[in-house]
Design a protein that fits this description.
Layout: H1 2-19, H2 25-28, H3 42-53, H4 72-80, H5 83-88, H6 106-117
Amino acid sequence: MKTRFNLLLILAVFLTAQSCYYDNEEELYPSAGECDLTNVTYSVTIAPILAENCNSCHGGNFPQAGVVTDNYDDLKTVVDNGRFWGAINHEDGYSPMPQNLPKLPQCELDKIKTWIDNGAMND
């Protein structure tokens, strides 16, 4: 009985030791923490973010609150008046978007802010 216990103990220690290793996050996920803000454009960068996070409520025939994000011209209107950035950045005085959800990931916010700061151009 004692031999069987010792064998199980040795096996447990061996399996535990095999599963314990230390990986460096940078080695596992080389792009983690990096946010590429070069070449931020409406069609390649901004439109896909909006399609994933905004257009289901703010697009189509009945956009909520009259805010339209599924086309450049209507989006540019809310960008220019500041409502868009105020809402997605959850600033005081604006309805935080996406509604009832946390803010967009910081990298996506940084890309949107870069696009706005560069004139919110339509490419």
